[in-house]
Amino acid sequence: MMRLWWQDPFRMFQTNLREIDAALGVESVLDYLEDFGADTWLLSVGGILSNYPTDLEFQTRNPYLAERPSGDLVGDAVKAAARRGIRVMGRMDFSKIDHRRAEAHPDWCFVGPSGARQVYNGLTSVCPSGGYYQVKLFEVLDEVLDRYPLDGFFCNWMSFNEVDYSRVYHGVCHCVACQERYDGALPDDRDAPGYADWQRFSKDVLADLTGRIRDHLAARRPEAPLVLGDQADIVFHEANNAVGRRLWHHRTSESVSAAKTFRPTVPVLTNSVGFVDMPYRMASEDPHHFAQYLVQAIARGANPSTYIMGTPATTPYACLEVAGQLTRFHRDHVDVYRELVPAAQTLLVRPVHSRAEFEGLYLSLLQRHVPFDVLPEERLGGADLSRYRTVALPDVGPVDLGAYAGRVVATGTSTVLPIRRLARYETEAEVRSLHLEGGVPVFGTFDVIEAPFEVGLRALSRAPYGPPEKCHGHVPLDHPGMVKHGNVVLFPWTIGRAYREVGLSVHRDLFADQVGGAVETDLPEQVEIVVGRSAAGYVVHLLNRSGDTDQRFAPPVRIGSARLRVPDGVREVRALVAQERLPVDDGWVQVPEIELFDVLVCV
């Protein structure tokens, strides 16, 4: 089978164009991309506005195309890029139509529970169930493919538009097409009965549409991949910030790992947003923050992409300097990133619920230097677990691990042993003052269980916590805080949430000690260790997380040097950032100082 271009590492730059940018200088943008280290240009092509002279009645030509001698931005870009060996992919946005088309085709439009359409900046949102997405989208793709040899497509904002750009919630779509396709009465909003069923319906509609787009492109132009959700040719992740959203410092790494663990050989594109938030598109992201998008992406095996509004000349964001440095690093070490797949021996399942529990266990493993991969709970049934020595289950409830025979470390409600649950403490008042043997405090939820297995960390009865004269009476009980049977360990309480919310190392260490598998090193806990395998050998990314701080990334403090044990049989180690060859002495190497990151290639 022919190897397609996007199955090898690539580096993208996206110019998310305003209508006034249609007269941009193609050659100057391509000069910038080449210097930046990018080999792929994601260009705004069609949908809301067509940056080419469309002949389709339901599409709108960008009026600023009149400022180009050719009248065709897409055509000019494709021809000029081809001369330089740069690929052009088409950004399409079918989420909205103008007022005239909305009036002519009301059946295409989103309709809220109250009967109102969703209008934003004069554009009306459309519904994926309707004819615009289901039929007209393919006519647009055909027109573009008939005219231009584009190297791929990305469809922006392909969703049911429950929330608009201002984060206003509009509810579930009640258009005619949704009513005809949905079996039963449509719910109105997130709180209505049946909303979970509607979520499954909406995911099915989008998955079906994604599959049809992918099949259509494969039949017309097989070398042009679709960039979209986790079922497309290239999995898309947007690394972004948002005003008012709590920063999870590991969001990019987690998202890429979740995709690569599920389908290791499928490319992932991390499109890193150069601005702070949608309402602040002229404001550059902090360079230290932006650097984390790209470093976390490439460490987990994703292709880096930088996304700006307008053109490099009109929006020279401060973060673009470091973005170029990291993009060129990826370009210069393409042999290391070719076929890079996860190689950790510990799997951390990401639950549908219990986010705090997951994040606490995530931090525990990272800080204790236990390399791990992330897998969404809903993907457990389709994943090969056999290569993992340990699977960690953060409060997932009943779970089926199939024939998996390795070690399991479970927390909270994860049902992996035949135990009897007698009661649950789940409010703050119910758990308050609850300790386990050794003075281990319990936070979150605690299940009182009976188990005919080895038990430990027995609970102590709660006692008064007011005046110190009365603070006594913590009597040992038979309620275990940990149960072991064979290769299974269960903490019947939210030990991860406890660490996430309180930060006591006793919680982290109790969990991580049961998981095991830590890399032997004297690097501090602020260095994250990510392991993988590629065409170049065994690859270890060392990420300096000393800059992780409240709601931002500060400049990392230089760390090192330090010793690190490498796998048995490694003869040679190259440190790519330090540009050093590290001698292997009895299985150990001396790692150079780490500023932002380094990459060790072991052969």
TrEMBL record:
Pfam families: GHL6 (PF14871). SUPFAM superfamilies: (Trans)glycosidases. This is Beta-galactosidase trimerisation domain-containing protein. The lineage of its organism: Bacteria, Bacillati, Actinomycetota, Actinomycetes, Propionibacteriales.
